[in-house]
Specification:
The chain has 191 residues and is mainly α. It has two domains: 83 residues, Orthogonal Bundle (Rna Polymerase Sigma Factor, Chain: A), CATH 1.10.1740.10; 75 residues, Orthogonal Bundle (Arc Repressor Mutant, subunit A).
Length: 191
């Protein structure tokens, strides 16, 4: 490891703000360029990099002087950028789902009561899922977690998550079938 980086690591670990500022000035722009490759936004890149530096500063006492702080910083930025992209993908999917809902026959209900009735029925159908399926459904749909992440959290196999999710979606389709027109392909799809 570069001697300067090792020195900065030691000084930052001890709370030396000047060393941190030098470290920041040295890597800020290259990190912003690195983050931009993932998020394609200068503003977001800058936010992610600033968050990464903040994370370094806040956990400075835990820095390992034998590990390369530059590599660690790049890993933090990469992870933050990937998390941002994942969140954007979830948001885009949600917006597509909402758009589909409004363009489907559900949005052609002629009065507010019918639409409100559907929303209540959907919420109730979700809450009526068996406990395990409900937990998996919420982790997937509300938290945006992948099946693999859910499996790790719940300490079960990804295949179990997949089968539970499949059953949950089948049950939801059945419960909401009266609200769905002919194709009944509401976006309760597997994911």
């Amino acid at each position: 490891m570069d001697q300067q980086l090792q020195k900065w690591t030691e000084e930052i670990k001890e709370g030396d703000r000047r060393a941190f500022k030098k470290f920041f000035l040295r890597f800020y722009e290259p990190l912003c360029n690195f983050a931009w490759r993932y998020v394609r936004s200068q503003h977001i890149s800058e936010e992610l990099v600033q968050d990464a530096f903040l994370a370094i500063w806040e956990s400075r006492t835990l820095l390992d002087q034998k590990k390369n702080i530059k590599t660690y910083l790049y890993q933090i930025v990469r992870n933050k950028a990937l998390n941002y992209r994942k969140h954007q993908e979830i948001e885009e999917q949600y917006n597509k789902d909402i758009e589909w809902l409004h363009s489907s026959n559900i949005s052609q209900m002629h009065n507010f009561d019918e639409e409100s009735e559907f929303i209540k029925a959907a919420q109730q159908a979700i809450e009526d899922l068996p406990e395990g399926a409900l937990q998996i459904y919420k982790l997937s749909r509300k938290e945006g977690l992948t099946y693999k992440e859910i499996a790790e959290i719940l300490d079960i196999s990804p295949r179990t998550v997949e089968s539970q999710m499949s059953r949950a979606l089948k049950k939801l389709r059945k419960s909401l079938s009266q609200y769905l027109s002919g194709d009944s392909s509401i976006r309760l799809k597997n994911g």
